[in-house]
Structures are given as C-alpha cells and as structure tokens.
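Please decode residue identities from the backbone states below.
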C-alpha cells in the first residue's frame, strides 16, 4: 500500500513536517529569548538596546 502514495503526497507530507519543525523551534525560542532578555544576557552580548 505504501507504493501507492503519489509523489505529490510525499512532497506535501515532507513540507508539512518541515513547517511543524519550524513552528516548534519558534514556539520554543520565544520563551527562551524572553528569559534571556529578563536576565540581561541579550544586553551583555549586544543584541538588545
């Protein structure tokens, strides 16, 4: 049955996996950056005003 999956479906599934991975990275990065900003780490390395 796996042989019946079209190339379009494989591309769509691959694209969606990449998008979900990017979304997870963004959702994890937001609280991490907020915590670093709160602790003053971003100012120390010159990424904040």
């Amino acid at each position: 049955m796996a042989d019946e999956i079209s190339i379009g479906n494989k591309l769509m599934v691959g694209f969606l996996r990449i998008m979900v991975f990017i979304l997870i990275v963004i959702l994890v990065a937001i609280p991490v950056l907020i915590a670093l900003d709160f602790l003053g780490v971003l100012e120390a390395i010159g990424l904040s005003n």
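Observation: The chain has a mean pLDDT of 89.
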